[in-house]
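In this section we walk through a basic example: taking a raw amino acid sequence and producing a predicted 3D structure, encoded as discrete structure tokens. The instruction is simple. Fold the sequence below.
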Amino acid sequence: MNQRRPRRMQGFGARLDGEVTVRRFVAPQRSTTATIRSGDLLEPIAAVASRVGVDAATVEGLVDAQGLAIFGKLQAGAEVFLAGAVVESDANDGSNDDDGSGGFVLQPPDASVAWAYDPRMLLHVPPVDRIPETPYRLQRAVECLKSTPRANELLPEELLCPEEKEAATTPRARLDGANKTAMSEVVPPLCWIPPRLATLEEIALCHDVSRYRDFVEHGTALTPPLKTDVYCNDMTSSMATRLAVGAVIDAARCALAGATSFAFCLVRPPGHHCTVDTPGGFCLANNVAIAARQLLKDWRNDNKGRGDGTLSASPRIAIVDLDVHHGEGTQSFVEEEPPPLCDANSVSPLLYFSLHRYDHGTFYPADPRGDTAYVGRYRNVCNVAVNTAANDPACCEKVMSDAVFERVVDDVLLPRLRRFCPDVVLLSLGFDAAYGDPLGRMAVEGGFAYAVRALKQFCRSQPQQQKVRELHAGLVVVLEGGYLPVAVAQGVTAVAHALRYPANDADVVRYAARQVPKTWQDLRRRAARQQHEMKQQQQQQAEEQLHGVEGGVKKTEALCERASASPTQSTEGAVLLPEDDVLLERHERWCDRLISRVLSTHEEANGPP
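The resulting token sequence is shown next.
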């Protein structure tokens, strides 16, 4: 179990007295409340364990939702988990399942997942501390995966710690290109995509050869001009970029060929902002766009020399971008791809779908082609541009949340995918829409697992249109942004469970549960802090004025005047937020308007289905 850094509870607003919710970490989950004083439990942890059905002799301590140990003080109102074995008499008891899992139990894996990762990608290090795209984002995610209670079922041996490898019993397979071996008929195997460096020929599928030649062949840093949000080092940046591109290409090939339908690429640097000759947004090469073009190139090579009557149909590739930022780089490559046949009924083999924060074109990258109304020359672009106001107390319901993710996935994304009929879905998944991210500043928590669970179910119901064999569509998840390491780690872990386990698995249900936007509570804390500061300032001003008042009567009168005025003045300028149930109603209505606007805009731009 990994140790997390002690959390600092100092500062205005930290409540160390009150109650916390304690849940049993393993299913079937039970919960109780426990009183804390000065951030510590008032009762022995064994007493809490008995109430949630954990064997006191096996208690490992308090952990967070990802199984990471909690050190430091607890805050009133927090939700924590108690790690330990379930009491035998309670092992099959589904009572008190109020954790969002609805009484669901842990299920065996139902999907084979291929993994791609190489620690050499961690060598790409920013030159200064203020850059948020750091190796720790990915390092923390891998550590979190290894520390999960189901790591042996979740991860291939290549990702496990040495001691975990010895205990691992889950069948595994090794992928080399599109081949697999030793597949189990009982438990879907875990697969490993061997790391490799992408070639110049592969990177040149999307990027200018003259700009990238020395970068690829000699490892020299990309030469200026570079945007201010990009850093590039000699040797290490080239290696990390080539490893990332190679991993995504191989995972996409495996998914399309049916070697394994699902894959997770833990890669960096991200790629979706990078255009043909301009790296941007911490991106040096467009990993997903290169992989998509490589699949099309493979198809063209397979059909060389064939007559018109024997040509196989082009694979259809959907790129779904759920990073908080619009992927203007990926979109630029997709919208250039024409239909394979020059007739009115043909469509481009590529589709780009993006859900992103837009704020009327002011949010990064501030590209007007990220607007909802923009569909591209071949109508293969589908943007859901969200105009937010999460920091404005007057309309803070306008925030990207779990509800927004659910509605967009169910009402916009899946219907569009059903019309497109993809053979493979490449998911550019950034976790910068997560609550707490310093760049995104949104409120998504369970939405990531919800989206992946829904895409997995869609792909399993979607047969590949161009294959003779009965194969369903593949899904490749590729890490993009996300700049709060703990949120990236939690998101990666949640998505990994959604890929590996069935939709009704207790962990998957818990990870995908809709949460109330925590940004609202942040606004309340900010308002309380401002009110507190205003009151202190007014009291100080009153004392300064009273200091010059002479005479007991005058001083008493002045004190009375200040006392009667202070309640009104202390709240002047402070905005009181409604309760969450009121904000949730507003949020739902805003979501309704958002979806209605998006659907009508898309229909007007593309024509009816």
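Looking at the output, two observations stand out. Residues 18-90 form a domain with the Ubiquitin-like (UB roll) fold (CATH 3.10.20). The first helix runs from residue 45 to 51. In the next section we compare this with other chains.
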